[in-house]
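Appendix B. Chain record.
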Amino acid sequence: MISICLIFFMLFLFFSLTFFSLSIYFMSIDLSVILELEMMSLNSNSIFMCILIDWMSLLFMSFVLFISSMVIYYSEEYMMGDINMNRFIMLVSMFVLSMMLLIISPNLISILLGWDGLGLVSYCLVIYYQNVKSFNAGMLTALSNRIGDVALLMSIAWMLNYGSWNYIFYLDCMKNDFYMQLISFLVVLAALTKSAQIPFSSWLPAAMAAPTPVSSLVHSSTLVTAGVYLLIRFHSSLGDKLLMFLLFISGMTMFMAGLGANFEFDLKKIIALSTLSQLGLMMSILSLGDSMLAFFHLLTHALFKALLFMCAGCMIHNLNNCQDIRYMGSLINFLPLTCSMFVISNMALCGLPFLAGFYSKDLILEYSSMSYMNMYMYIIFYVSTGLTVSYTFRLLYYTIFGEFNFYSNFSLNDNGIIMLKGMSGLIFMVIFGGSILNWLMFPVPYFINLPIILKLMTLCVIILGMWLGFELSKFALNYQLNSFNWLKISLFSSSMWNMVYISTSGVIPIILKSGIFYQKFLDQGWSEFLGGQNLYNKLSYYSSLSRIFSENSLKIYLSMLMIWLTYLLLMLF
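Structure tokens predicted for this chain:
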């Protein structure tokens, strides 16, 4: 009997290859197709179900389906023995289909369906392992994303001014209109929450409570990339001030995540902070005016980040669900294939020539060197790149090259054939995907004209980051573990500049205290006396009065007749 994993794996892989072929065809003849189906008509407003099919949506869908097919195949072994295996696969499939709906929607209402679908299904997946930590993480994820959902609902309300929700028709012609500027701001706010930029960053590491295959899917091509993809679509309507604001926010996120990952010891959280840093990079280059370059990095990042999480999941699986990197070390001796793929995907993340990440990352940094950008943002770009290499090599030092620190009675091996096959499906694209996409998306190459110092700047930053990562690891291990100042710096950075505490323990006491105040002074105080209780007393009084009338109807009727006759006689005389 064929399992549900294999069915979805084959289905998604087939559609992925189909969409990729169609994308090349649409790209070659520069074709875009919009399909409209009228769902409902209300006065002058018609609600259409719209589908936008162009090379960008087809290419992104092919990547999402390819990665999700590999993740589902990988899940067959990773989730083996789980009693709710079919439910898990169905949730993952719903997650992917919500992303599909979001990608092909040029209409804000159909985008909201995919957007909310991602939010709701991600909550179900984060709380999949039902414990207190998962429930807290799921609630933080859901409530952080609700802010963006509300912003999207408000933008739908403002789009009523144009008589249609097909935003794609109004982006260029209404660019300077106040309503479109307001809608663009709301869309940027929605994208900031979904892509976990400052100040909504704390939910992204918390979402690591989900099973590792889900993390692989979320951090590569679905949930967190939805915000970046929406901004790529809305890019032509974003004003200069809004782009400058977005540049500052994304630059700070990129720097904060890179710094935090250098002090983190949880394997999955390090990779999650790495995703946050790369999302900041995508948003930054989008803010500088090149949405195609942001989309290019979005696709290449999806490939190596999915593989990175799958390798991490394989390690965690072998180490009896241990995620602390301080317990690892010398894993290359026990898991050679997994560690080889882990190193390759990490090198792609660092932008090592000529892997997938190099083509997009190097181009982004050289493009930023050619842009009219202030020194602050220029330094942030290069320092964040150096921090990326630093935490990557720190991670490799702890997991692969360092001393083995796990239990004495261990059993580590690379016998997970299905997991290895799932990872092997991605490794080819991690190595060659960047060059393939580069040739496809940019038929005319970028002309980068820089002096030799700026050309070598990226390489120098990478080498400096390698050195810093190794030195930081040895320094932390050998000298400063008990230092109070080192502990304060470590706690401040790994808590994402206290954003975790502000989002949870900083906000919750205020809400709880206001709830107690409301209950004490309003619900059981004057509100009760003047509201519900007073209303009850008045209704009781009037109902008892009406009951007297209804019970003595004949007597009252005769009395009223006598009063009326008396009044009539008085009026006559």
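Further analysis of this model is presented in Appendix C.
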